[in-house]
Amino acid sequence: MSYLAVVRSILRKSRDNKTIVVCSSILLLIAAVALIGPLLSPHHYADTDFDQPFAKPSISNWHVFGTDGLGRDLFVRILLGVKVTLFVAIIASGVSLGIGVAYGAIAGYVGGKVDGVMMRAVDALYAMPFIFFVILLMVVFERNFLLIFVAIGAINWLDMARIVRGQTLSLKRREFVDAARLIGVSTPGIILRHITPNLFGVVVVYMTLTIPQAILVESFLSFLGLGVQAPQTSLGALVNDSVSNMERAPWLLLITAAVLAVILLCFNFLGDGLREVVDPRKKT
Amino acid sequence: MLRYALLRIFGAIPTMLLVIALAFLMVHAAPGGPFDAARVLPPEIEKNIAAAYHLDESLPRQFLRYLNGLLHGDLGPSYRYRGQNVSKLIGDALPVSLQIGVLALIIANVAGIAAGIAAALRKNTFLDRLVTGVAMAGISVPVFVVAPLMVLIFAVYLGWLPASWTGGTAITRLILPVMALALPQIAYIARLMRASMIDTLNSEYVRTARAQGLKTRSIVRYHALKPAMLPLLSYMGPATAGVLTGSVVIEQVFSIPGIGQSFINGALSRDYTLVMGIVIFYAALVILLNLVVDLLYGVLDPRIRTR
């Protein structure tokens, strides 16, 4: 099957699944608002208005979610936070996907001793609390965006590698792989042209489940002040800001937390739903 | 079993060495030295400082010195708190963190197992949907959102519990941090337990037990509970890692003077040795726990040993 055919078959099967339709609609809506919304609001994310710190949400002055301690419009800042958070999460998941698929497919297809050594290494890395290494990395080097992507991607590839290896092991015994080998396709050719397209479905599912994990890591780092720096912001950094003012302006925390929670919940439900579609045996 | 145990123990050593080497190299690859102050120091003084912290030695020598210190439980001097040893800083903060972490893990297991079994036994009923829904929320909503919300509700609005470590009694100040730390783990454990219990209840020996006329209650208690709990055992490693990560946030939110707080203070003030020491300490804890779990697994499930 080609990539396109796999996508089409997943889409077709997803149409009847209520969870998938609802969650993906919500996520698309949030992403669209995050992209278009700032253009519609008269405020800019870095504009401060010291006459109106902690303004309550109201329509009249266009501060629909109110303002923070520096009089910055929360609505626009949340949209920026959503954009940054989603961007970091998607790139980080892409990194972990690339490493995980390559690693798992090679280990699974080559097999034997190579597989044994490669999976032992994964086991060893599994026992390491990576998040603390990421923090160490952030402390030691200048904090930059790229580092956050790479670090988060480096944490999350292990699960992907395990799953992809398992799938590859069962795929390589199939007739079409034998046929490809018989007509003289090279090992890298088989992995690229015949194994990975068939892994696509599973990989899509686990990518949907990796994104919320990446969001968690990113917002965790930003919450601790080790991630995205002001005047840029992310949902984690916004939660951190609102926590320090929660007694004066509880709505800041409630709104920010709600947005973060909705995004995470939707990704998790979407991943669960897709897993049922792609692999009906896993239905719980 | 002995062969299995030895294999596992020797398997953990390279992981630990890798952790130490990675942490050590990262810190030493840092741009700029730890004592780059705004003021330029006379070269003699700089030399003395470097000699006092052995920074004038070659990297391999420094690494061996650090390893040797580790074997004696010495994590070296802190770069920020003059005259303080990292081991002592960790040791001072440990009891508080340990208390909260262990309590959270116990509560997470008890509540998670109970909720998971209840949901599995009443699969596809309202109770089951409630448990799975709440569990999904518990997994999705991060600790740093749950903890402040709990403070807002229980401390600020209701005024039942203290908002930080300095208020309240030795018991009341524990409740909110422990609950916030336990919640996501309760959610994970409940999901695991539910799936595993459903699997077990569908197995053939449970069907046999049912056919013999045993009541559901005794089937669960005498036949299904133990095998269904096995997957939970392997989750204890990740659970510990999760509690450690969570404690960094929790100690920040409730201003608890534990290791997590030292870690963040060290990170923000660039106290390299302190951060490196805590990373190694945390990694050692997680690796040790994973090892214990592996060994227990071998004891409880003989099939594992021969693999």
Give a quick set of tags describing it.
heterodimer, A: 284 residues, mainly alpha, 10 helices, 0% strand, elongated, B: 307 residues, MetI-like fold, 77% helix, flat
Which stretches of chain B are low in confidence, meaning pLDDT under 50 for 5 or more residues running?
Answer: none
The proportion of strand residues of chain B reads under 5%
Q: Helical residue percent of chain B?
A: over 70%
- Please give the number of β-strands of chain B: 0
The low-confidence runs of chain A, each spanning 5 or more residues with pLDDT under 50, are none
Radius of gyration of chain A: 22 Å
CATH superfamily of the domain at 91-248 in chain B: MetI-like
Mean pLDDT of chain B: 82
| Inertia-based shape of chain A | elongated
Task: Give the overall form of chain B.
Answer: flat
CATH topology of the domain at 91-248 in chain B: MetI-like fold
Structural category of chain B: mainly alpha
> What is the alpha-carbon Rg of chain B in Å?
24 Å
The pair of chains with the biggest contact is:
A-B, 47 and 53 residues
CATH architecture of the domain at 91-248 in chain B: Orthogonal Bundle
Q: Could you explain the architecture of this structure?
A:
The complex is a heterodimer of chains A (284) and B (307). Chain A is mostly helical and 284 residues long. Chain A contains ten helices and no strands. In chain A, α2 packs across α3 (74-110). The longest helix of chain A is centred in the first third of the chain and has 37 residues, at 74-110. Chain A starts with a helix and ends in a 6-residue tail after the last helix. The mean pLDDT of chain A is 80. With 307 residues, chain B is mainly alpha-helical. Chain B has a domain at 91-248: MetI-like (MetI-like fold, Orthogonal Bundle), CATH 1.10.3720. Chain B has twelve helices and no strands. Chain B has helices at residues 2-28, 43-52, 59-71, 86-121, 126-140, 143-157, 172-201, 204-211, 216-253, 259-268, 272-300, 302-306. Chains A and B meet through α4, α5, α8, α9 and α10 of A and α1, α5, α6, α7 and α9 of B.
